[in-house]
Amino acid sequence: MNIGDIAEYLKNYDGPDMNIMEVCGSHTGAIAKNGIPGMLSPKIHLISGPGCPVCVTTSAYVDRLIELSKDPHNCIITFGDLIRVPGSGESLSIAAGKGARVKMVYSPMDILDLARNDKDSNYIFAAVGFETTMPVYALMMQAVMEEGIENVRLLTALKTMPEVIGWLMENDAPVDGFLAPGHVSVVTGSNCFDKIAARYSIPFGVAGFTARQILVALCGIVKARGEGKVINFYPSVVNPDGNEKALALIDKYFEKADAAWRGIGVVKGSGRVLRKEYSRFDAGSYDLTGDAKINKACCCDRVLMGRLRPYECPLFGTVCTPTSPQGACMVSTEGGCYSYYANNRRD
Question: What is the pLDDT of residue 104?
Answer without folding.
Answer: 94
